[in-house]
Design goal:
By secondary structure, the chain is α/β, with parallel strands linked by helices. The protein has 5 helices and 5 strands; from the N terminus they run E-H-E-H-E-H-E-H-E-H. The chain has a single domain, classed as Rossmann fold (3-Layer(aba) Sandwich).
């Protein structure tokens, strides 16, 4: 069962993504409203996938990815953000994110891509 950590400072976004993921009974989801709390959660458990927003107060999603990778985190990390500049995508991938998904288009397509990525991890761990 893939275990997912969602990180976003917007509680509505967290709820929408969490509810979509929890439609699949084979997925376990934890949430965090800040990058700092997400780091605390990763110290106590291993996540198969971490999905994080980019722009959050305090520590950004990019800062979170850098910290997690520096600490040896091997989880699949997806940066899921409303920003879609090519330089942002390059920055996200260069800092250690595995995928960058632009939020703000068709939610069904975006969520389908998230599920596809999660399923690739599930196949590797099962």
């Amino acid at each position: 069962m893939p275990h997912i950590l969602l990180v976003d400072d917007d509680p509505d976004i967290l709820d929408i993504i969490r509810l979509d993921l929890e439609d699949d009974p084979a997925i376990a989801v934890d949430i965090s409203g800040t990058a700092a709390k997400a780091i605390e959660k990763t110290q106590g458990r291993r996540y198969d996938v971490i999905i994080t927003d980019w722009r959050m107060p305090g520590m950004t999603g990019i800062d979170l990815v850098r910290k997690l990778r520096k600490d040896g985190c091997t989880s699949l990390i997806i940066l899921y953000s409303g920003y879609n500049m090519s330089t942002d995508i390059r920055t996200a991938l260069d800092c250690g994110a595995d995928h960058y998904l632009h939020r703000g288009g068709d939610p069904e397509k975006e969520f389908a891509e998230i599920h596809r990525l999660i399923n690739t991890v599930g196949k590797k761990t099962i």
